[in-house]
């Protein structure tokens, strides 16, 4: 593990190594819903889609600025897309529920229609193309998750969720799909050519799932939510373990992996680079008690004890390190607990406070100010150290991230 300068306890660390802002892509008339970096290191390009109904392909000119080589208008707002770098197949989903497949030419100057899929009844929120299976997976506001064969164009199956499907991920090797929804659940399904089997529901978020990322190498599913939390689910480990990463102060909107680093972006304008080689622990279950586990004073709903002890009822709190149910007085200390994923100070009890050393408080992440709320992010393919971010202001930005990963 690389030893770098680590922050002092308690304060979020703004690294001196910054993502370098390269340029802004400005041209869409309405919200940009997604931007994907494509091309080689010396010849990068960007595909973007927007509520203004256009797909734009931006090529980098000699000046370093990006100019559209294609501006293609669709019948409705373009809400989601996926791109297969090797075959240059582009899938664009619309607000009206359809998905269109294009071939992008070698010189990035032309897109050719390949096929259309009448997939959903409402806005498509997320799509994923799997070349290995030739499946196109999609999640929609109509509460359906579906998958189509990209060889025949036929629908292979559909799963109805109890709330909007917001995002989808897929492990092609085991044919497991992960469907995130508006209620904060992630449904795991085993897919076949004709049907699905529900495997499990991953419950842990208290807000809508915004982004999912499948780490094929480690069999980890990583989810980012409107509840500001990232959860890392160990799917392949078989032990059902999960841990949280708490470092954002607003909704988590994008995730990406680069080597041993996890990058996350948020509406709080921050890029967090998490060291995933560090050992982290799952957060403890929170105890539910009628009295403080330390001083035994009753909580406010414990009316009998309140009368017996002639005490005023107290509010129940929880120590983030041991999970005990405690009154405010017995849990008045605050500390970051990076091993448990808490990068900012959280409530801990007096006993745990004695056991947390400065070493335990050392941050396992670095924080970078992007100066603007981020609604989406993608990294360049093939290890090229470029990042594209989508802002809430219709702009896209390109960053050199060589020094932060
Ligand atoms: Zn107490
Ligand atoms: Zn404790």
TrEMBL record:
Coiled coil: none annotated. It comes from Galendromus occidentalis (western predatory mite). Gene3D superfamilies: YVTN repeat-like/Quinoprotein amine dehydrogenase (2.130.10.10), Zinc/RING finger domain, C3HC4 (zinc finger) (3.30.40.10). It comes from the Eukaryota. WD repeats lie at residues 202-235, 245-277, 367-405. InterPro entries: WD40/YVTN_repeat-like_dom_sf, WD40_PAC1, WD40_repeat_CS, WD40_repeat_dom_sf, WD40_rpt, WDFY1/WDFY2, Znf_FYVE, Znf_FYVE-rel. PANTHER family: LD41958P. Keywords: Endosome, Metal-binding, Repeat, WD repeat, Zinc, Zinc-finger. The keyword Zinc applies. Its main location: other. Pfam families: FYVE, WD40. PROSITE patterns: WD_REPEATS_1, WD_REPEATS_2, WD_REPEATS_REGION, ZF_FYVE. It is found in: Early endosome. This is WD repeat and FYVE domain-containing protein 2. GO terms for cellular component: early endosome. GO terms for molecular function: zinc ion binding. Residues 286-357 form the FYVE-type domain.
């Amino acid at each position: 593990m690389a030893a770098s300068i680590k922050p002092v306890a308690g304060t979020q660390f703004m690294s001196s190594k910054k993502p370098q802002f390269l340029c802004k892509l400005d041209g869409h008339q309405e919200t940009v819903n997604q931007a994907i970096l494509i091309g080689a290191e010396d010849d990068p390009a960007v595909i973007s889609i927007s509520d203004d109904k256009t797909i734009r392909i931006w090529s980098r000119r000699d000046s370093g600025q990006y100019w559209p080589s294609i501006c293609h208008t669709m019948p409705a707002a373009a809400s989601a897309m996926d791109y297969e770098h090797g075959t240059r197949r582009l899938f664009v989903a619309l607000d009206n529920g359809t998905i269109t497949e294009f071939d992008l030419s070698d010189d990035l100057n032309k897109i050719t229609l390949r096929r259309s899929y009448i997939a959903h009844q409402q806005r498509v929120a997320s799509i994923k193309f799997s070349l290995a299976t030739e499946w196109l997976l999609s999640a929609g506001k109509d509460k359906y998750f579906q998958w189509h064969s990209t060889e025949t164009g036929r629908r292979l199956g559909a799963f109805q969720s109890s709330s909007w499907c917001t995002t989808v991920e897929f492990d092609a090797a085991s044919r497991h799909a992960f469907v995130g929804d508006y209620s904060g659940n992630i449904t795991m399904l085993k897919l076949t050519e004709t049907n699905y089997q529900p495997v499990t529901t991953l419950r842990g978020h208290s807000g809508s799932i915004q982004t999912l990322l499948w780490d094929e190498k480690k069999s980890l599913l990583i989810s980012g939510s409107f509840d500001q939390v990232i959860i890392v689910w160990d799917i392949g480990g078989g032990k059902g373990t999960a841990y949280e990463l708490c470092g954002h102060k607003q909704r988590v909107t994008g995730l990406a992996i680069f080597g041993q680093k996890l990058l996350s972006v948020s509406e709080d304008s921050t890029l967090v680079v998490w060291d995933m080689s560090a050992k982290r622990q799952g957060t403890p279950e929170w105890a539910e008690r009628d009295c403080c586990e330390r001083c035994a004073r009753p909580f406010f709903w414990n009316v009998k004890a309140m009368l017996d002890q002639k005490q005023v009822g107290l509010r129940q709190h929880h120590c983030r390190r041991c999970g005990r149910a405690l009154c405010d007085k017995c849990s008045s200390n605050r500390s970051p607990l990076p091993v448990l994923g808490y990068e900012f100070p959280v409530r801990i009890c007096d006993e745990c406070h004695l056991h947390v050393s400065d070493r335990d408080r050392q941050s396992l992440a670095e924080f970078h100010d992007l100066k603007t709320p981020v609604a989406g992010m993608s990294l360049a393919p093939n290890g090229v150290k470029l990042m594209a971010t989508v802002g809430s202001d219709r702009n896209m930005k390109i960053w050199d991230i060589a020094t932060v990963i």
